[in-house]
Amino acid sequence: MDRVIIFDTTLRDGEQAAGGTLNIQEKLGIAHQLEKLGVDVIEAGFPISSAGDFEAVRLIANEIKKPVVCALARAHPDDIDRAWAAVKEAKHPRIHVFLSASDIHLLYQLKKSRQQILEMSRNMVARAKGYCQDIEFSPMDASRTEAEYIYQVLEAVIGAGATTVNIPDTVGYAIPDEFGDLISGILKNVPNIKQAVVSVHCHNDLGLAVANSLESVRQGARQVECTINGIGERAGNASLEEIVMAIKTRQDLFNLTTGVDTTQIYKTSRLVSELTGFLVQPNKAIVGANAFRHESGIHQDGVIKMPITYEIMNPKTVGIPASSLVLGKLSGRHAFKERLAELGYSLSEEDLSRAFAAFKELADKKREITDKDIESLIAQEQRTTSEDYHLDRLQVSCGDRGIPTAAVRLVGPDGQVLADAALGTGPVDAVCKAINKIVKVPNDLTEFSVKSVTEGIDAIGEVLIRIESGGITYTGRGADTDIIVASAKAYMNALNRLLAAKKAAG
Ligand code: KIV
Ligand code: ZN
Fold first, then answer.
1. Of 79, 163, 298, 478, which has the fewest beta carbons less than 10 angstroms from its beta carbon?
2. pLDDT-based confidence at 57, cuts 50/70/90?
3. Does residue 98 share a domain with residue 57?
């Protein structure tokens, strides 16, 4: 069976999504999880774009062994040199060069002729080839480019050494039939096309990114570029989990395979959502909270009798844990550890002890601890371990007549205990103001949302906060059964990420 190469661009195009910035350690953590997921290529970043991104790509290139590690570069010598400097230590390095091809971009943005673009594409691929064997080229905005011109560009870049030619639907304009025709046209009309893998990169502006990618695969494309949870520029990119599961579930139709270990999908989705702060919509295919929930009585009846009646995939194949055990106040360390292992976590003894203490604290407040509670608890633990400032105590007074007041106590970077208090328009405002008096980093709070992790009045509340400072957005998350405490934790998380980014920038 033919294999489709899964090229993951969560760390590059995914991170380009407004508000989705990740720090170096977070990018590295996601890259390790992508390796476990079994993707073939990780596009780790755009090294020329910032010193931080260069460093993230370099670290990923050094640590990731199985997948190809790819760096993006414009068709410009400095970009290519920088991309190579970042990935040269990788076991399997790739440079991905891109340049606009559509007349719209040539006329209004680049102000260059088709001939000039063709020459630049050829020359820059040749420059990249001087460094590295594995070269990808993308004629940007291909779906709005005359097909004959794309054929010429592709022939030229393959002649110069491109081993993958990627066809981007940059603005998400294509319709499946039409995009499929473009791919089959390329396979028929580019004389040296057999020397390269044909890839597609679809955006989701019309909600067709996955459909366009799948149609391309049917027409002969053998690499698909996609992101976890479909995150990415504007409406996002084609969603990796949807493409992989469509190919697997409809093997009868595609007769294709991927190297993805689908049981890692759910965990990867949760990690990316947690670190980028982009919540997964409940009805999202494959990884949404409702994706495998049956509400209608007729459906429930069918699933109980035989799951295949209304379930086309077994939730276990995407790694959604089927919980057999409900934990509670009396559960011991061993049962907790077992449950963690079933959920795919393997913690060091020290981390396990901390997580178990947090679990016991939660079990005192909440009768039944579900898998979602445990995931939220572990995420909260992981957030706090890398913090400069740590929330130690919080006391709030509010009500319809009182003046919202907050007193906070933080532990600072050198272990010093710092306390202050403030008034606010509401309890969350008072908490943020009290924290600001201690941490003193100017910022604007741009987004605040609360959701409950599970059902019930004693559910854990998860708060997401975005703050802006110097034109950059930082996301923070916090979880607790008390939503004011969760808000304080989320705000501290965002502030700590801001401080870490400032430190990294020198
Ligand atoms: O959408 C796009 O065209 C891109 C290219 C850099 C491949 O992201
Ligand atoms: Zn893109």
1. 298
2. very high
3. yes
